[in-house]
Design brief:
Blueprint (H helix, E strand, L loop, with lengths): L2 H13 L1 H19 L13 H13 L3 H7 L4 E10 L9 E5 L12 H7 L3 E2 L1 E5 L11 H12 L2 E2 L3 E4 L9 H6 L2 E3 L3 E7 L2 E7 L11 H4 L9 E4 L6 H6 L4 E4 L8 E2 L3 E2 L13 E5 L2 E5 L17 E10 L1
Parallel strand pairs: 1-16, 2-4, 3-5, 4-6, 6-7, 9-10, 10-11, 11-15
Antiparallel strand pairs: 2-16, 8-9, 12-13, 14-15
Length: 318
Amino acid sequence: MNIEEDFYQNLIHRVGKDHLIKRLIRQVNFAAKFYAKGGYTSFHIENMELIYIFLKYFLKLIGLYKRGLKNSVDYKIEQIPVYLKNLPPQFNNFKILQLSDMHANMIYDEGRGLINTLKKLKADLCILTGDYRFLTHGSYKEAIEQTKEIVKAIDATHGFWGILGNHDFIEFVPGLEDSGIKILLNESVKVQKDGAEFYLAGIDDAHLYSCHDIYKALSGVPSKAITILLSHTPETFVEANEAGVDYLVCGHTHGGQICLPGGVHIFANAKCPRKLCSGLWRYKNLLGYTSRGTGSSSLNVRFFCPPEITIHELKSTI
């Protein structure tokens, strides 16, 4: 058995043959329709390259392009207190560092600013909520290598966990896991500290590939356990609430990336209420957080929407 066959056999063992076949077929169909003349699987604005070519030259024409580039690496560290009922006291002040939508192969300064910022931070655990590649198609080797360099800068005593986004193929998994990031593919893991525990679950992409299965991800989680779910997109909020998730952590929207003054987004590419597209939010019994993203997609510019590094600090409440 060669390395490629071994990789697919391992994936079948982890996610099941049906999931793997569905993911691969949808990736192939997406790629085929993308490269076909005038064809796309469906309307996703991150795939409409002509829009961004026009926007790039428009910004250059009005003298704002360089400012947008600098904005794209002007990181803001968001400190988010997360109050969870029945959180074991051992996890009070437990810090989870989130990076989302890094699109690592096209960071304006090749990741130098991000790496220098991350070296100054400490966290108990690190999560990465998808989109490691800049485009939704093409080579991904550089994105994986850059992601490895970024992860090296992070001090996280309880390890690194991630999921795939709509820019990511399932073939990314070996490279990401070689860098120490355990990818959750509709799976969960127990996080332990001083005899206490909570569960971290992660689902496959729900936005483009629709390969998520929250109930499978939670299948091994005790009914009363605190559960944090990683979803690339906030579009899973209804399912997450129905499944009894305590905290949904996601990204995908970039907070709009190019916003009006005050951070009001024009477009967030997600089928969910506007209030769920950035920051901390609540839906019924579900608490959630949507990152504005650490990188930029389609065009390396940001306006009125700084990229973020998120520190979720767990707080116990009765």
